[in-house]
């Protein structure tokens, strides 16, 4: 059991809980970094999210299974709280000096496994960072 899940536990939505065993490392970027995320197509704000990988994913199935991205998110009462369509993969430039948190993908229930050997990166509100930029959108394979 993790007794001190660090700074992410105090952020709304408790991003620490999306890392396996709430384990992650904080890094301050010493140079710009290109990260990748899957999401709804259409560019614009769809290109930004808070969860990334160092390499682009190749399919919707890979995102769902390896990165534990459910199509729908429900609360403890079964009420729908959000959806996660996977239609495109985005390359996003995160600027030098940004705090990023990297660790293994946490299990989200059912087939949404994640795992200790699959790493993800959390960036808090990258759309508000000066210099953050969506640089590419590519439609993703459905299978």
Automatic annotation (TrEMBL):
It comes from the Bacteria. This is Uncharacterized protein. The lineage of its organism: Bacteria, Pseudomonadati, Pseudomonadota, Gammaproteobacteria, Aeromonadales.
């Amino acid at each position: 059991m993790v007794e001190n899940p660090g700074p992410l536990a105090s952020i709304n939505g408790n991003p620490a809980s999306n890392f396996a065993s709430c384990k992650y490392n904080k890094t301050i970027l010493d140079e710009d970094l290109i990260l990748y995320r899957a999401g709804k197509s259409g560019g614009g704000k769809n290109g930004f999210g808070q969860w990334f990988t160092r390499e682009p994913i190749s399919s919707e199935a890979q995102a769902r299974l390896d990165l534990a991205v459910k199509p729908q998110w429900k609360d403890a009462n079964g009420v729908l709280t959000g959806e996660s369509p996977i239609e495109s993969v985005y390359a996003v430039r995160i600027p030098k000096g940004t705090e990023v948190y990297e660790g293994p993908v946490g299990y989200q229930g059912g087939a949404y496994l994640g795992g200790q050997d699959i790493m993800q990166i959390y960036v808090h509100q990258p759309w508000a960072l000066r210099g953050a930029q969506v640089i590419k959108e590519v439609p993703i394979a459905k299978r």
